Inverse folding.
């Protein structure tokens, strides 16, 4: 696995389609969690706020948003149009997560982290 020094370096390494989807996802996460810190963890971009908040990554066939299993189960109906497993939501450049749903997911993660701290 290639190691990245920064989120910007990670995104520059992505092909244009996934890069655009991940940049949009990143912008929405930052807006929903302005107090979170951002960096590379486990080789992918990660936001932290009282522990791991959300991470995201690009792959050959899809992009993924990583978070807790609790949140993906709690919002199962809203995520029905996406391939999910445990704490992972898979999306594509052609089928990105709507900003309103990303904000809802991030806010749910913030609340979960703040309850368990």
């Amino acid at each position: 696995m290639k190691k990245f020094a920064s989120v910007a370096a990670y995104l520059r390494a992505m092909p244009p389609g996934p890069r655009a989807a991940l940049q949009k996802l990143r912008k929405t996460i930052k807006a929903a969690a302005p107090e979170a810190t951002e960096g590379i963890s486990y080789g992918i971009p990660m936001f932290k706020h009282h522990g791991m908040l959300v991470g995201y990554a690009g792959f050959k066939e899809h992009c993924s948003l990583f978070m807790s299993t609790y949140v993906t189960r709690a919002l199962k109906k809203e995520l029905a149009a996406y391939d999910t497993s445990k704490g992972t939501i898979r999306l594509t450049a052609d089928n990105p997560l709507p900003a309103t749903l990303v904000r809802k997911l991030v806010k749910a993660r913030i609340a979960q982290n703040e309850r368990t701290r």
